[in-house]
């Protein structure tokens, strides 16, 4: 059984897709051990509560320094003994100490086709604003392993989504979530839970 911690900051629709995937059997062998939010008001925490999943807030605002916050987050993750950390709309930059402690065991969803529209500053609506500004006709989402860079780790799954002429950043964000994020995040977790991924030289291959 793969025990996962889901780290969130906001609405938690990706968390919901994971909860639904476990409930409907499209994600097997997986248990959500805990949902951790940096934001006490995140609706994701309410979703956890509704499904009897432990939900906690660890906020930088409650610590004197960023280092103390990072230490508390690491301590909690170690204490939970999770096999995988899933960043699902998590706006906290994961510090190197956590990346090292959970090497190859952290995944993130990015709302664009990496290596486009990613890296420092590309988060939330900003990504979709830049996509529209550049006029690309296809965007999408990427699930990737987290390394010490920003959006640089091995790519697990990607799914393309069409950009339409009259899209606003909000409309495009919603389409990317519905058509790509909520599909590939559950799928990536299921692949990991069933030992189907192999990573060599920074490239992920899916075993049959
Ligand atoms: C998603 O677009 C995710 O890719 C991005 O933030 C959004 C989170 O949405 N990083 P939600 O909290 O899962 O609803």
Please provide a written account of the structure.
The protein is an alpha/beta fold. The protein has a single domain, classed as Formyl transferase, N-terminal domain (Rossmann fold), CATH 3.40.50. The model has no long low-confidence stretch (mean pLDDT 97). It has six helices and nine strands; from the N terminus they run βαβαβαβαβαββαββ. It has a seven-stranded mixed sheet, covered by helices on one side. The chain has helices at 13-24, 43-50, 66-80, 96-101, 125-134, 169-193, and strands at residues 2-8, 30-37, 55-57, 84-87, 106-110, 138-145, 155-162, 197-200, 203-206. The structure holds 5-O-phosphono-beta-D-ribofuranosylamine. 5-O-phosphono-beta-D-ribofuranosylamine is lined by residues 8, 10-14, 44, 88-89, 109, 111, 123-124, 177, 181. The site of 5-O-phosphono-beta-D-ribofuranosylamine (GRF) has 15 residues, from helix 1 and helix 6.
Question: What is the topology?
Answer:
Elements (H helix, E strand, L loop, with lengths): L1 E7 L4 H12 L5 E8 L5 H8 L4 E3 L8 H15 L3 E4 L8 H6 L4 E5 L14 H10 L3 E8 L9 E8 L6 H25 L3 E4 L2 E4 L2
Helix pairs in contact: 1-6, 5-6
Properties at a glance:
alpha/beta, Rossmann fold, 208 residues, globular, binds 5-O-phosphono-beta-D-ribofuranosylamine
Short description:
The protein contains six helices and nine strands. It is α/β, with parallel strands linked by helices and 208 residues long. Bound molecules: 5-O-phosphono-beta-D-ribofuranosylamine.
């Amino acid at each position: 059984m793969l025990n996962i911690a889901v780290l969130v900051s906001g609405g938690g629709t990706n968390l919901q897709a994971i909860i639904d995937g476990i409930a409907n059997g499209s994600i097997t062998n997986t248990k959500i051990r805990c949902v951790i939010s940096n934001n006490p008001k995140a609706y994701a925490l309410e979703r956890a509560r509704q499904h009897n999943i432990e939900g906690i807030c660890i906020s930088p605002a409650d610590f004197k320094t960023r280092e103390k916050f990072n230490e508390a987050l690491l301590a909690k993750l170690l204490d939970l003994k999770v096999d995988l950390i899933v960043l699902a709309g998590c706006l906290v930059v994961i510090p190197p100490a956590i990346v090292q402690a959970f090497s190859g065991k952290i995944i993130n969803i990015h709302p664009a086709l990496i290596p486009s529209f990613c890296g420092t500053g590309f988060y939330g609506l900003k990504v979709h604003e830049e996509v529209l500004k550049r006029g690309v006709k296809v965007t999408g989402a990427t699930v990737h392993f987290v390394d010490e860079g920003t959006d640089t780790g091995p790519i697990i799954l990607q799914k393309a989504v069409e950009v339409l002429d009259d899209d606003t950043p909000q409309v495009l964000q919603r389409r990317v979530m519905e058509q790509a994020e909520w599909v590939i995040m559950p799928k990536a977790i299921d692949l990991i839970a069933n030992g189907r991924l192999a990573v060599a030289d920074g490239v992920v291959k899916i075993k049959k």
